[in-house]
Amino acid sequence: MKKATRALAAIMTFALLLGFAGCNSNDGKNTQTSTTGTTAGKKYLIVADNSFAPFEFLDAATNTYVGVDMDILAAIAADQGFSYTVDNCGWDASLGNLANGQADGMIAGMTITDERKETYDFSNAYFEDGQTLFAKADSNFSGLEDIKGKTVAVKTGTMGASYVESLKEEYELTVNSYEGSDEVYAAVSSGNVDLGVEDFSVISYKIDAAGLSFKLVGEKVNVKPYGFAVLKGKNAELLTLFNAGLANIKANGTYETILAKYGI
Description:
Blueprint: H1 3-22, E1 31-34, E2 43-48, E3 57-59, E4 64-66, H2 68-80, E5 83-88, H3 91-99, E6 105-106, H4 114-117, E7 120-122, E8 127-136, E9 151-155, H5 159-171, E10 174-178, H6 181-190, E11 195-199, H7 200-208, E12 214-226, E13 229-231, H8 236-251, H9 254-261
């Protein structure tokens, strides 16, 4: 078994355990339902992250989850006429529930990679992004030349975590892993770690729109597409609906309107 495959298996096993406890909570906040669909009377269960602005995040005013992913999913469902429930239960728990068949699909700013294609079938790309390091705004970090021997916070099982792992030996980094983005941000803000890593559009949004006192360190790297995911060999009809709806909302201008709404 290849090293990458073993790593993915370990991540999926960990996520699986979290998934049983983390999703399908029906707590009135994480779970939200679209009831406008008409496709064969079927309702899909979609899982998503819960703290990955601007793609999914809790709107305190309405106590519901909003964001690019949420709006794209809603627009595609309306275009294709299917109903769904979305459970914003977090990255690890979402992976677990998708892996064990407790969810039909996942939308969570998920980068399409060859490694992940061994486990999932992906939609056509609906966005592209890369990763970047970040630090407190008043820190002395400006580029990779400044990070040797430092501690970096990563979110488990993400492309950002893989990027930091690729730098670990050369820059003698200590890596601290966390389950969610908010925990990564808190670790950096508190000074428990020197730096964090995040998708470029996400941390840029946090700095520009949410006002977090961070700055980017180094360049955006590993630019790759995001995709909607289903378990490999499962829910092909949902993937077909997603791709058809995505093409339509791109053609009619809805897609660009959604991105502009969140400033990306």
